[in-house]
Amino acid sequence: MNIFIPLVLGVFVGYLLRDRIKFSMDKPMSIALLFLIFFMGVEAGRVEIDAFKLFISSLVFASFTILGSLFMALLGVRE
């Protein structure tokens, strides 16, 4: 919920100042986006996970997905 308040405020301020602002916001938005991605990476790097367990569970999930798709395709061919 607290993400919508700055968004709505920004839309409101942008609407009010749309004829007064003459500079491009592309560069500041790009810099802010790069900072956001950087800090998301820092936060993701702080998380401790068991990589081997995650790898095995991902393989099992992918295998079941492939087998389920093949099974459904075979059912579709027979009809």
Features:
single chain; 2 domains
Outline the secondary-structure elements.
Layout: H1 4-16, H2 26-46, H3 51-78
Q: Describe it for me?
A:
The chain has 79 residues and is mainly alpha-helical. It folds into two domains: 48 residues; 30 residues. The protein contains three helices and no strands. The chain is elongated, with a radius of gyration of 24 Å.
Q: What does this entry show, briefly?
A:
The protein has 79 residues and is mostly helical. The chain contains three helices and no strands.
Q: Work out the radius of gyration.
A: 24 Å
**Total beta strand runs:** 0
Helix run count: 3
Order of helices and strands: HHH
